[in-house]
Automatic annotation (TrEMBL):
Keywords: Membrane, Transmembrane, Transmembrane helix. This is Unannotated protein. The chain crosses the membrane at residues 5-22, 28-50, 62-79, 85-104, 116-136, 142-161.
Length: 165
């Protein structure tokens, strides 16, 4: 679990810094950031699946995660060429909803990490809501996604560094 958290943290932090220091905040930058985050989450899920394959139980890492995060990354790559803010918002909201559902699933599996999962789910909910409220403003949408990436990276980094991880 700790390894997957560190992988997710690294990808999220890199994307947050990339978006923060990018001079242009448009759908291309947002889709590239989302692609990188989705690839990070897919990589972490793949490692979790490979680690737990022989054990028979998984702490949230599953083949479904690998498939969905891989599909989101692929769609982000395809949509990045078009600079379409609507496709970026759809992908961000899809990512947020799927990630939030995974956090709810983790709460039922790991009773000791309820607070961490609640915070993560709250951040995911805020991302989904901000994506819906910003409308078609690419600067705000990309900026909110960058802020989400940095805040979630800090949260997951603290969680990964804690003794209970």
């Amino acid at each position: 679990m700790r390894t997957t958290l560190w992988i997710q943290t690294a990808f999220l932090f890199a994307v947050g810094i990339f978006i923060t220091f990018s001079q242009v905040h448009n759908a291309i930058i947002g889709n590239l950031g989302l692609m990188f985050v989705a690839l990070g989450f897919a990589t972490a899920a793949t490692i979790e699946v490979l680690k737990t394959k022989g054990i028979g139980k998984s702490n949230g890492g599953s083949s479904l995660q690998v498939i969905v995060f891989g599909a989101i990354a692929t769609a982000a790559i395809v949509f990045a060429a078009g600079n379409d803010i609507v496709s970026f918002l759809i992908l961000v909201i899809t990512f947020a909803v799927f990630n939030g559902l995974l956090e709810l699933k983790k709460v039922s599996i790991q009773k000791e990490s309820k607070l961490s999962a609640f915070i993560h789910f709250g951040l995911v909910a805020v991302l989904g809501i901000s994506g819906a409220l910003t409308g078609l403003d690419p600067v705000a949408s990309t900026g909110f996604f960058g802020a989400y990436a940095v805040i979630l990276a800090v949260h997951l980094g603290i969680t990964a560094a804690s003794p209970k991880a």
